[in-house]
Amino acid sequence: MRRLPLLLATALLLGSSLPAVSAPRALAAQDHAAVVGLREDYLAASYWIDRLAQPDALILDRAEIAAQNAKMRALDPSIHDLRAIPATLKRDWVRQQIEGLAGAPTRTLYGQDGQPVSAGVIASTLASRNLDGIAASAPARHGLVVHRADLRTFPTTLRVFNSAGDTDIDRWQESALFPGDAVVVLHESADGQWYFVASERYQAWVEKKHIGIGDAATVFGYGQGDDYRVVTGATARTVHTPEEPRVSNLQLDMGVKVPVLANWPAAQNINGQQSHAHWVIQLPVRNDDGSLALVPALLPRSADTSADYLPLTGRNLLTQAFKFLGERYGWGHSYDTRDCSGFVSEIYRSFGIVLPRNTSSQGISPALDRIAFDAGSTTAQRQAAVAGLQPGDLVYIPGHVMMTIGTADGLTWMIHDTNGGSFLGLDGKRVSAQLNGVSVTPLEPMLASDTATYVDRMTNIQRIRNTGKQ
To answer: Residue limits of the NlpC/P60 domain (predicted)?
Structure first.
C-alpha cells in the first residue's frame, strides 16, 4: 500500500486538491433528473474543463506513455505477450489456459426465458470445449479480428443470468475484441465453430467467423506503419459498401487504430465510391477458407478520428469521457457498448495507454500508482485519499470503477458506466437510481448498501500520471 501522505504531496497539474469527504447527502427537490446533487450544467465536459488550473498541461508525454505501457506489459500478469507464446503449443499448457478461465458453474443459472438452465445444457456446454481433443502438440496459429467480436466464457452464444428475469448481465459474456486486434489461436471447440484465443488483455472463446488466420509477421505487423487513424469518438463506422460487405458499416470503437493507405490513387474508386471525402484505410477480412486478407475500406473524414493518439491532458481526458455520456451499460462489452472497466480503458486507449481489461486486474495493477484500502483503513485515511483525487484518477469499489472529473458544491464528482447506483431519497430511504449507463454522480453520497457508502467500500485508487512532475 502506498503511503497516503505521498498522494497529498503530489504536484497538482490539474488544479487544487478536492475537499475532505462530507457526510452523505440526501436527494433534494432541486437536484437535476432525480440524481443526488446533480445540476444540468454538470453534464457538459466544458463545465469541468473550465475548473482545471492547467487544462492543456501534458500529464504524460509520448515517451512517458511508451514507458508506462512497457511497465504495464512487464509487470501486470493480466497482460499477455503474444509474441512470447511458443510456436508449438503443448496439451497441458493449453488445457490450463482454458480451464483457468472458468470451470463448471456452481450456482443455478437462468435462461432468457426465466427458466433454470438444465444440467444437460451445462454438461454439453462444458463438453463443447473439446478438452479431450487438445493435441499433444500443435502449431500456434495467428489471426486478426475482422469484426467486433464477443469473448465468451464457453463456446456458445447462450445467454445465462444469475436470476430469473434479470437479463442484462450475461454471466458467460467476458469481453469483446475489436477489428485489427491480434490473437493467437490455442484450441477449437468440438463443433469447429469457435476458437479459444489469447489476446493481449484476455483469453476466452470467440466465434471463428470473426477471425482471419494469417502468418505471424502479417498479424503483428498490422497497423505498425507511420500512417494511421485513431478512433477518438465513442465509435466510428466505415461507409456502407454493398460491393464489399465484409468492411461495410463496420463499428470501430474509441482507441482502435487502423492503417491508412496514404498513397492510394485519388482516381481509383473503392467499392463503388470515389475516395476524396474519406480516409482510405486497410482492414482485415476473413476469406471463405478462414484465411486472413487485408483490403481497402473507406472511413469518412467526418468521423471523429485523429492522425495520432491524443495528447494526454486534463482537457482531453474529460472530453473523451463525456463522449460516452448516456451510452447504455453493456456488461462485458455486450450491446455493442461497454461496461465500467471497458469505459475507462477505452478512454485511456485513445491516448495510447494500455490498461487491464477487468476491474479486478485494473484496481491492483502493479504498473500503476496505486493506493490500496482494506478493513484496517480508517475513515480519515479514506477521506484524505478522496481529498487528493485529481481528474482522471480511477476509484474502485468491489466490481466497479469510476473516473474522477472534479469537485463542485463540496462533493467529488465521477463519470462512470454503471448498471446501478443508489443514494438517500427525499424521504431519507435508499433509492435505487437504475442509472444503467454512462452517468455523472457525486462520490460521497453514493450508497453501496443501506449503511455503507462508496467511500466506505473503496478498495483502490489508481493514478495514471508522472507524480514527479512539478
So the answer is: 311-465
Q: Which CATH number applies to 82-221?
A: 2.30.30.40
Instruction: Tell me: pLDDT of 469 over 60.
Output: no
* DSSP per residue, 426-438: TTSSEEE----EE
Q: Are 179 and 146 in contact (CB under 8 A)?
A: yes
Helix, strand, coil shares, percent, the chain, to 5: 25, 30, 50
Whether domain 228-306 has CATH 2.30.30: yes
* Residue range(s) occupied by CATH 3.90.1720.10 in the chain: 4-77+311-463
Residues 458 and 448: beta-carbon distance below 8 Å: no
CB neighbour list of residue 96: distance below 8 Å, 6 or more residues apart: none
Q: How big is the CA angle at 110 (ends 132 and 418), to the nearest 5 degrees?
A: 105
What tens digit of pLDDT does each residue of 176-213 get?
999 999 999 999 999 999 999 999 999 999 999 999 99
Q: How many Cβ atoms sit within 10 Å of the Cβ of residue 20?
A: 13
Extract the C-alpha cell encoding 319.
472530453
Q: Please return the burial class of 295, using the count of CB atoms within 10 Å of its CB with bins 0-12, 13-18 and 19+.
A: middle
pTM for this model (two decimals): 0.92
Pairing of strands 58-60, 312-313: antiparallel
Amino acid at site 162: N
pLDDT band for position 23 (cuts 50, 70, 90): low
Contact 440, 43 (CB under 8 A): yes
Spatial CA neighbour of 173 closest among 145, 153, 199: 153
- Per-residue pLDDT of 352-389, as tens digits, reads 999 999 999 999 999 999 999 999 999 999 999 999 99
Evaluate if residue 3 carries a pLDDT over 80: no
